[in-house]
Input
Amino acid sequence: MTGKHLKRFAEQTPGMVFNPNPVAAYGDYQGYQVVIQGYLNENQYIITWAVTGGMIADQPANINQYLVSLGTGRPYFNYARYEKSTITVNIRHKGEDVEHLTDILNQVTAFCRNNGMTTCCKYCGSPSGLGVYNINGRVEAMCTSCFGQVQVNLQQAQAAIKQKKANIPGGILGAFLGSLVGVALWIALYQMGYIAGIVGLVYTFLAMKGYQKFGGKLDKTGLILSLVIAAVMLFVGEMAALLVTIASSFPVDFGQAMQLLGYLLQDGEIQSTVIGELAMGYFFAALASVSTIISVYREANLKHEVRRLG
Output
């Protein structure tokens, strides 16, 4: 089931609403507030009910026993659990098949109804003021009071990050150490005849993470320094790969390999080849890394999307 199939499911199911980003369907299903979030790359859906009251709401062992039994005869069933007022069921999906989704929804909803359980906020258990919210890519059902607290907590955490002073020398060291992994990967792939964008992704990702780890935070200065270091280290990786190639092709030591590399780089044809490899490497690195750069920077500074969906 892809996003369009979940959309079709929501359109054909009374009370359900489709949200394209993040991919989810939510709403009132047979009297219970349900959230279905799609993880399309993993071919699975996570379905959640926040419920309270009834005859066994305070007996998680009994509820979990029932949920485990759902897996019998259902090969698409991954797992299910009841924890902190929330029933969670994870199922695999394939193509346009929505029968599995409908089956699980009917089974769990009937179980809740038969045991007198009612919809509530997943955090405080309140049955009133409920809504559905996007919390940085997670679709959750909660009351307006708890959502307000989520916003306050996020603002406080963001303020703490802004007030924290970065350790620039430590960050530079961290970015350098992180990008060394990229150098090693570049050398390994170069020996196999590949120049892959994934290497550039490794360079930038680990440089940023290293800066954040050793520098204490990844601000705009840290982001720029990390990218510069990653770019420089990609060049270092190319030179190191050439040295390894020379050392493995000729009976020379490291010093002699360095001298031979300098001599070879004076040749116009070899220069063109190296420049082409570097250009290709930087191009693929930029292509593969843009979304990762944005994601890592936003996560490091808690620039989360927090909004009400319904």
The chain has nine helices and ten strands. The first strand starts at residue 16 and ends at 19. The chain has a mean pLDDT of 87.
